[in-house]
Write a structure and sequence with these properties.
The protein is an all-alpha fold. The chain has helices at 19-43, 48-56, 60-64, 69-74, 78-99, 105-134, 137-173, 178-201, 206-209, 216-231, 236-245, 248-262, 274-303, 305-318, 321-329, 334-363, 368-397, 399-417. Helix 5 (78-99) packs antiparallel against helix 6 (105-134) and helix 12 crosses helix 17.
């Protein structure tokens, strides 16, 4: 069989026309499912235990996506999957908007959020695959920063702009659900528009549209071999412990930051309103996260992952102290809250660099793409399981003791770093 030639788009199919919109569309539903849902349910009066427990289950599609990613690769084209999943997401977001004013809004929206999460996880698989098929290797390197930038912009829009807009509408019209209905309707309209746009603008690389389908027996054989090869890797048990435990403090913390900021001071919270939370969480926090990630990447590229592994783990851990301070002092000055969130998110972004680099390091080998997908599945599992109990722990212990518990859990982050082995040369810039 003749080897397919790498696809090189012409000027009319410039990546600038579709990469920004594709990766903005990749990030926005994740923000809707994992962050906006938490803030919305809290504002609608649900307690922390239920909010954290039920929204943590929404991680599940990202946990199990390695099990259906091979089928995305062999059924139809990745271009087809991108457009189809964007349409499904649009329908799901519209259904959430219609369901919110009903008496069964919690059960109804939660079920639809799960379907949106499933479509979003599938969209991630197809979009990242299409990125590799639709660009040459040089273009992939050139645009990696652009795709990351627009994914981060979607975080600012989702966690910040849309939450602020919902709060403003609710305040102006004295309604609990009107603002949330409006932003989900806006997101739905956006996804219908972007699906239509991508159906015309996305290139049609030959490697995507003219792939030879494999027989089911060959597919299943390769599927099983992929997982067997992963679990036969040297040091796999230690690697799995690292994937599951490195982010334990953050997995507990992330579900309780919005409720803590929203709860009144007599309940142990800070007493911000929803639009203030949108600003601090979606702008100041994201800026800190981005700067931490950028500086972490530069540092790792200078001396390699091994040299920075422990400093990054300490950074991931100690910045949790900012929320101990907030819970202890309950400052009335909003700038103190903004500063603490910025510091915590900066430390998280810096420390998270080591985590992602280790996933890449452990995934090297014959099935590196599939193995990286498996690693990200364990990453999502490591966030989901602690999140299930985060709300109950916060309600039982109180916010201050809960945040002290996250500091104690930082011992796992630092401890697993002493177990793994990393080549001193990995991540270093080659001379």
């Amino acid at each position: 069989m003749q080897k397919s030639q790498p696809y090189t788009p012409d000027r009319r199919e410039s990546p600038w026309w579709w990469i920004p919109t594709l990766y903005f569309a990749e990030g926005l539903p994740y923000m809707a499912v994992m962050t906006i849902s938490v803030i919305m349910y809290k504002c609608l009066g649900l307690d922390n235990t239920r909010v954290a427990f039920y929204t943590s289950w929404l991680y599940l599609p990202w946990v199990i996506k390695p099990f259906w990613s091979p089928f995305v690769d062999i059924i139809r084209t990745k271009r087809w999957w991108v457009v189809t999943m964007q349409t499904v997401i649009a329908v799901g977001l519209a259904l959430i908007a219609f369901t919110l004013p009903t008496s069964f809004y919690f059960q109804g929206t939660l079920a639809i959020f799960w379907l949106v999460a499933l479509a979003s996880a599938t969209h991630d698989i197809s979009a990242d695959g299409f990125y590799m098929l639709g660009l040459s290797q040089h273009q992939q390197s050139l645009f990696v920063g652009i795709r990351s930038l627009f994914y981060r912009i979607s975080m600012v829009v989702g966690q910040g702009g849309l939450v602020v807009l919902a709060a403003k509408v609710n305040d102006r019209y004295e309604t609990l659900t009107g603002g949330w209905v409006m932003i989900f309707a806006v997101m739905s309209a956006f996804f219908f528009a972007v699906a239509l746009y991508h159906s015309f603008i996305l290139p049609r690389p030959k490697s995507d549209s003219q792939r030879m389908p494999k027989g089911m027996g060959e597919v299943m054989s390769e599927f099983v071999e992929t997982f067997v090869d992963f679990f036969k890797k040297p040091g796999v048990v230690v690697a799995l412990l690292f994937m599951l435990l490195y982010r334990l403090p953050e997995a507990l913390l992330v579900k309780m930051i919005p409720p803590f900021l929203l709860d009144p001071t007599d309940a142990g919270g800070i007493g911000l309103n929803a639009d203030q939370v949108g600003i601090v969480y979606g702008t100041v926090g994201v800026i800190g996260l981005m700067l931490g990630g950028i500086i972490g990447g530069i540092a790792a590229a200078t001396k390699g992952l091994k040299a920075w592994l422990h400093p990054m783990a300490w950074s991931m851990s100690l910045t949790c102290l900012t929320f101990v301070y907030l819970a202890w002092m309950q400052p009335t000055a909003v700038w103190q809250v903004y500063l603490c969130v910025f510091i915590e998110q900066f430390g998280y972004g810096f420390g998270f660099t080591a985590y992602m680099l280790y996933l890449i390091y452990f995934s090297t080998g014959r099935f590196k793409t599939a193995h990286y997908s498996i690693c990200t599945g364990f990453m999502a599992l490591g966030m989901m399981i602690p999140g299930l109990a985060a709300g109950w722990l916060a309600d039982t212990l109180g916010y201050l003791n809960f945040f002290i518990l996250t500091i104690i859990c930082c011992a796992t982050t630092i401890g697993v770093c002493y177990l793994i082995k990393v080549s001193p040369e990995f991540g270093k810039k080659k001379e």
